[in-house]
């Protein structure tokens, strides 16, 4: 993809506008060209969270997608336990490490579900001997039967980025108001300009880091023709932007979670 320089007008807007206002600044009148799911997260009190020094970015991403899907089903936000999902994934695949792939985390959810955060709070350090208490397991098993379902857009492949069809499908899912789980090759030294993650050469990235895509904006002044709004539990901005160009080069996998409307949601305490 060809890299385009920011116009003077866009640069001035970026300098003057905060992250919260950037998506709406000079936005096209066609509302399908701009999507921002953050107001829904805020309405359900699902604020961004930080992973600290642990290797749990993918667990935060999948937990965030589960929280959103559950909240959209119940119209009530429930903060879910990253710690429990991390344990469930390890138990499901017979592993004992911190963090995991989206596919393994989903196996953990299918086997054990996920409990509210209050039942098993996130810890500063990984505990390989963790054994969730019976109450947490009971509540988690209830949430395993809510009809939440995972859909793949791009199965994991570290050797490829996005095709045009992948990009189109990601934007379709976001337009339908579902966040997208994204795994990426990530800069070894991430550089942000006005909250936009800057492009890096192949030798300057590693595998990898995961973030939740919660919106996008078409913008011909940005490399690749637009930006994704990302929720990042790791270093850097808690919310930031990623150009289509970056995702096109370095997105390893993409998936989303919604719910089956035919299946009722059991009552669980927030």
CATH class: Alpha Beta
- Round the Cα radius of gyration to an integer and report it: 18 Å
Class inferred from helices and paired strands: alpha+beta
Which fold does the CATH topology refer to?
Cathepsin B, Chain A
Distinctive features:
270 residues; alpha+beta; Cathepsin B, Chain A; nine-stranded mixed β-sheet; 21% strand; disordered N terminus; disordered C terminus
What would you note in describing this structure?
The protein is an alpha+beta fold. The chain has a single domain, classed as Cathepsin B, Chain A. Helix content is 33%, strand content 21%. It has 9 helices and 9 strands. It has helices at 8-16, 19-22, 38-43, 57-74, 82-93, 102-112, 134-143, 164-175, 244-250; strands at residues 34-36, 148-154, 180-187, 192-193, 196-197, 205-218, 226-231, 239-243, 251-259. Strands 1, 2, 3, 4, 5, 6, 7, 8 and 9 form a 9-stranded mixed sheet that branches. Strand 4 and strand 5 (196-197) form a beta hairpin.
Question: What's the layout of helices and strands?
Answer:
Blueprint: H1 8-16, H2 19-22, E1 34-36, H3 38-43, H4 57-74, H5 82-93, H6 102-112, H7 134-143, E2 148-154, H8 164-175, E3 180-187, E4 192-193, E5 196-197, E6 205-218, E7 226-231, E8 239-243, H9 244-250, E9 251-259
Parallel strand pairs: 5-8
Antiparallel strand pairs: 1-6, 2-9, 3-6, 3-9, 4-5, 6-7, 7-8
Task: Characterize this entry briefly.
This protein is of the alpha+beta class and 270 residues long.
